[in-house]
Design goal:
nine-stranded antiparallel β-sheet, 3% helix, 27 strands, 2 helices, single chain, Beta-galactosidase, Chain A, domain 5, mainly beta, five-stranded antiparallel β-sheet
């Protein structure tokens, strides 16, 4: 099957700005659908062991539902993915106050983060498979963040069945930055029920415990002897109801794991998810120092998916490759500061395989 990429209008913003949905299809028939609004991954069609395709990401059936979305299904997240405590941070002696969209904290970049804007989009040539390039210029002071930030994201659907996301950013003033994609995965297929029978492996020897507001305490705790020891493939349902203070705080998993090995230019394996019924296996590799495992704990039936079925607790899982939450207020965490003259570069791959 030939490699293709096609775009078509899918809606318009209240101000009339047109929104395009692109379909990337590789030579094996796997496809990814991405909107210029929010850089949202709206569908990812992956074959099972019989060759039957199914969408393995959660999302809506209409553009209008994405406009009202508060769960960030499939969206690009920035300027700062995850939480910043108190909605403020100090940088070079100046305190910056952010939009408090989850009072008293800031979550996923504020009230109008990168998931709520229309990105400039164009198809670019690639030897690896169809590629979509997105560009957004975030103004100085947007949601309280300093500096004009030039952000570029490239989605590539490779011919060896990986969705590759490359991030590039630069700034004209010192700022903080944490970018990720917020896709919810269900390898049995969207709308098929919960993911508690999925197996997960996270290549991390430590995680960052949280307080009652899900803000990391600053501790980096070893996973050994806890439900967070996911270094071998483990059925999610065997841990999700564990009587552990951190599981109780998150109503399940909603924690940052410290990826094994030094962050660098080459992606390293961060996590594996396997669903035996379909034979689908997803391997997540990244250059980022952490991955947030969120087990869909706060899905409560309010969101109705493309299948027409309401999403309930545990109907999808997120593996958000990232720097650690609240890093601007935790000097012992890897720095998220970006300065003029520097370039932020990051790559994450979601690679799919079939187990017979």
């Amino acid at each position: 099957m030939p490699v293709t990429i096609a775009g078509k209008p899918c809606g318009a913003m209240p101000d009339g700005t047109a929104v395009t949905r692109y379909t990337l299809r590789n030579q094996n028939g796997m496809s990814a659908e991405i909107m210029s609004y929010g850089g949202i991954l709206t569908a990812l069609q992956v074959p099972d062991r019989t060759g039957k395709l199914a969408n393995v990401t959660l999302g809506y059936g209409s553009f209008e539902e994405y406009l009202a979305d508060d769960a960030s299904f499939g969206a690009l997240i920035g300027r700062y993915a995850n939480r910043i405590a108190g909605g403020k941070f100090a940088l070079d002696g100046t305190i910056h106050e952010l939009t408090l969209n989850r009072p008293p904290n800031t979550l996923h970049g504020g009230r109008k983060g990168f998931s709520k804007v229309v990105w400039q989009s164009e198809v670019e040539p690639s030897n690896d498979g169809p590629m979509l390039a997105l560009h957004y210029m975030s103004a100085d002071g947007e949601e309280g963040f300093p500096g004009t930030l030039d952000v570029r994201v490239r989605y590539t659907l490779t011919d060896d069945d990986a969705l590759q996301i490359d991030y590039l950013a630069s700034t004209d003033k010192p700022t903080v930055l944490n970018l990720t994609n917020h896709a919810y995965f269900n390898l049995a297929g969207e709308g098929s029920g919960d993911v508690y029978d999925h197996e997960i492996m996270i290549a991390a020897d430590a995680f960052t415990p949280v307080d009652g507001a899900l803000i990391p305490t600053g501790e980096i705790r070893q996973v050994v002897g806890t439900p967070f020891d996911l270094r071998d493939l483990t059925i999610i349902g065997e841990r999700i109801r564990a009587d552990h203070p951190q599981i109780l705080l998150g109503c399940g998993f909603d924690h940052n794991f410290v990826s094994r090995g030094a962050a660098g230019n080459a992606p390293r394996l961060a996590a594996v998810v396997r669903e035996r019924g379909s034979g689908r296996r997803m391997e997540v590799s990244t250059t980022e120092p952490g991955v947030q495992f969120y087990s869909g704990n706060f899905l409560n039936g309010r969101h109705r998916g493309a299948s027409g079925r309401p999403y309930r607790q545990g109907d999808g899982l997120c593996l958000e490759t990232q720097h650690f939450p609240n890093s601007p207020n935790q000097p012992n965490f890897p720095s998220t500061v970006l300065r003029p003259g520097q370039s932020f570069r990051s790559r994450t791959e979601y690679r799919f395989r079939i187990e017979r």
